[in-house]
Amino acid sequence: MKFYFSLLTVLFFISCGVQKNIVKDPYVGSYEMTVFEVDNFGDIPLFLDLTKEGDQYKAAITPQEGSEDVAFEVEGTTFDEGTFTVEAYAAGYDIYFELTIEEDTVTGSLMGMFDLEGSRIKN
Prior knowledge:
1 helix, Lipocalin
């Protein structure tokens, strides 16, 4: 009986001592963002969903309510020195977004010409 009690006590302490070190990626998440003053479109409100598979980031861009007539097809996502480049196809054009994410804020540009700003959607 003492053996089983000792074994359970040891297992209890070992299980309490083992912790998962889950590192949360600071970039992964969902964001609301707006691209300002786009020619022929005005301000474009968008959703950005950023995920990570292995060591590669993947982005998905979808229109928010009120801008459903613009569909985005993301072709690639790269991350270099704190800046994400998301290449996409929309409204018959190859476009790209340059995004910088700091904590819960996203800033950047569309094609280097149109400013964008946004924030993380809290879950």
